[in-house]
Amino acid sequence: MTQSKTLFTVALLTGILSTSVAQTRYLDDVGDQIVVTSNIVYGSNIGIISQTPALEELKMDLYQLAGDDTTTNKPVVIMLHTGSFLPAIANGQPTGDKTDNAVVEMCKRFAKKGYLAVALNYRLGWNPVSTSEDVRRATLIQAAYRGLQDTKTAVRFLRKSAAEDGNPYGVGDKFAIGGYGTGGYLSLAVASLNDYESELLMAKFIDNSGDTPMPYIIPSVLGNFEATDYGMMPADTTGDGVPDINVPLCIPNHVGFSSEVDMVFNAGGALPDISWLDAGEVPIASMQNILDPDAPYAEGNVIVPTTGEFVIIAHGSQIVQETANSYGNNDVFAGMSTTLNDAWYGYGNGAENAAAAGHDDLPGLFGMVTPA
């Protein structure tokens, strides 16, 4: 990791987890008036929310300090909402959009510190009510895959805006991705999902319910990780059992620009499998309720709030941080405090919370202790 990346990671994590007395940009508030630019179209791709594949515009909201439009090297923080990959209300929750209160509040807080904060919408849609565990798991993994593609598309859009469009948003070269719940799953995927053969052809990601085992994710159908190529699904329109057309499920966006980021952080997310995480990947910070009912804090079942049905065994913040730390990916966090001002519950000592959770005080991890 370069020195500039290290400084950016320290500044961002410090901004999340601690308080400083000096008025230093990216660590402290350096203004209080925020300008929001809403519904910027950062790309388009094929969505399935209407049950029929259709082209969707992908939109983001940008938050920055008023009068800060001359700063052209702002580090970017992209915030991903929760919502179980379904629209708000339909998912049984009041959340599921870039305008969720928590996302808006965090974007405002980052913007006040001088970051360019981005609230992102990504494609939604899967089948949580199927009686088949394979269908539930396959369609959820596919929804997460589309969300991963869209997040990477947004990073490339912002880099393209800086390189080719006069940098209207003041984009710098440092990027962080963070998310709540479902958005936390996506941020962790951005950090770790990068090898199809070893990470998506595992037995737990293969559908064995039919005559022929079939991977849940097929890049020729859904497109590559980056959404920089076409994905096509063969379809039979004549009913003779022979596919006669290809239906697009992915179209390329902003080809030639980098999707790389410098760190991710997750609140209440998990990895579908800890083997996705490898040495040399970006630093990860995590925050999670140690008694999270919907995602495991260590290893356990993912239960979708929409239906209460089991989807997959996953690995949560404790195991993510232990593994990232063991690989040296989080060395940049060494010596940083895990104590913060938790004004809501008053349980702000990370070391004590770690003891309550039964693990060491881990750099980059804040396990939240909440009332029963």
Give an account of the 3D structure.
With 372 residues, the chain is α/β, with parallel strands linked by helices. Helix content is 26%, strand content 24%. It has 8 helices and 14 strands. It has helices at residues 3-17, 101-112, 133-164, 182-192, 196-199, 219-222, 317-326, 350-357; strands at residues 34-47, 54-65, 74-80, 116-120, 171-180, 206-207, 214-215, 231-235, 245-250, 263-267, 284-289, 299-303, 310-315, 365-368. Helix 2 links the parallel strand 3 (74-80) and strand 4. Helix 3 crosses helix 4. The chain is globular. It starts with a helix and ends with a strand. 45% of the residues are buried.
Strand order of the largest sheet: 1-2-4-3-5-10-11-14
Biggest sheet overview: 8 strands, mixed
Distance between the termini: 41 Å
- Please state the structural category: alpha/beta
Mean pLDDT comes to 90
What share of the residues lie within helices? 25-40%
Shape: globular
Q: Which runs of at least 5 residues are low in confidence (pLDDT < 50)? A: none
Strand content: 15-25%
Q: Layout of SSEs?
A:
Blueprint: H1 3-17, E1 34-47, E2 54-65, E3 74-80, H2 101-112, E4 116-120, H3 133-164, E5 171-180, H4 182-192, H5 196-199, E6 206-207, E7 214-215, H6 219-222, E8 231-235, E9 245-250, E10 263-267, E11 284-289, E12 299-303, E13 310-315, H7 317-326, H8 350-357, E14 365-368
Parallel strand pairs: 3-4, 3-5, 5-10, 10-11, 11-14
Antiparallel strand pairs: 1-2, 2-4, 6-7, 8-9, 12-13
Helix pairs in contact: 3-4
